Amino acid sequence: MYVILVYDMNQKRVAKMLKLCRRYLHWIQNSVFEGELTGVQLKSLKIEAKEIMRGDDSLILFKSKDERWLEKEVVGEEKNKIDNFL
Amino acid sequence: MYVILVYDMNQKRVAKMLKLCRRYLHWIQNSVFEGELTGVQLKSLKIEAKEIMRGDDSLILFKSKDERWLEKEVVGEEKNKIDNFL
């Protein structure tokens, strides 16, 4: 499935979460990632994320069965041009 | 259409962008918003956003014709429970 992930982490744990998300998804902006994941990969990502998360930390996942159902538009500076074309 | 909006703004302009996005969408986390917009509303939102944006500021929009094509999952703290149930 196609996944958009957005996290809101305490500064102390943000580096760890960034590293984790980059292992599974493509970074597109600040705390936003996207990519294609299997159900098993998504499950592993969530388990690992929960191990990092504490207190107010939060993670939102938007899942779409097909990437074609989702159109992306960037207004202004594109932060990671390479990742966008992967 | 159903829209997810994520911005990455310079601290100087973030309050203005937050105010603008709240006029059109529901705030769900940090710099993330979602909601149903018509084509005309989306166009207005983009025009207004571009007036605020400078330099490295960036805005990403994910658009889906139907909200049912997109499943949302929150891991950890839900930041704005009221907006989620609107």
From TrEMBL, chains A, B:
<dbReference type="InterPro" id="IPR021127">
    <property type="entry name" value="CRISPR_associated_Cas2"/>
</dbReference>
<keyword id="KW-0378">Hydrolase</keyword>
<protein>
    <recommendedName>
        <fullName>CRISPR-associated endoribonuclease Cas2</fullName>
        <ecNumber>3.1.-.-</ecNumber>
    </recommendedName>
</protein>
<dbReference type="InterPro" id="IPR019199">
    <property type="entry name" value="Virulence_VapD/CRISPR_Cas2"/>
</dbReference>
<dbReference type="Pfam" id="PF09827">
    <property type="entry name" value="CRISPR_Cas2"/>
</dbReference>
<feature type="binding site">
    <location>
        <position position="8"/>
    </location>
    <ligand>
        <name>Mg(2+)</name>
    </ligand>
</feature>
<comment type="similarity">
    <text>Belongs to the CRISPR-associated endoribonuclease Cas2 protein family.</text>
</comment>
<keyword id="KW-0460">Magnesium</keyword>
<dbReference type="GO" id="GO:0016787">
    <property type="term" value="F:hydrolase activity"/>
</dbReference>
<dbReference type="GO" id="GO:0046872">
    <property type="term" value="F:metal ion binding"/>
</dbReference>
<keyword id="KW-0051">Antiviral defense</keyword>
<dbReference type="GO" id="GO:0043571">
    <property type="term" value="P:maintenance of CRISPR repeat elements"/>
</dbReference>
<keyword id="KW-0479">Metal-binding</keyword>
<comment type="function">
    <text>CRISPR (clustered regularly interspaced short palindromic repeat), is an adaptive immune system that provides protection against mobile genetic elements (viruses, transposable elements and conjugative plasmids). CRISPR clusters contain sequences complementary to antecedent mobile elements and target invading nucleic acids. CRISPR clusters are transcribed and processed into CRISPR RNA (crRNA). Functions as a ssRNA-specific endoribonuclease. Involved in the integration of spacer DNA into the CRISPR cassette.</text>
</comment>
<dbReference type="GO" id="GO:0051607">
    <property type="term" value="P:defense response to virus"/>
</dbReference>
<keyword id="KW-0255">Endonuclease</keyword>
<dbReference type="GO" id="GO:0004521">
    <property type="term" value="F:RNA endonuclease activity"/>
</dbReference>
<comment type="subunit">
    <text>Homodimer, forms a heterotetramer with a Cas1 homodimer.</text>
</comment>
<keyword id="KW-0540">Nuclease</keyword>
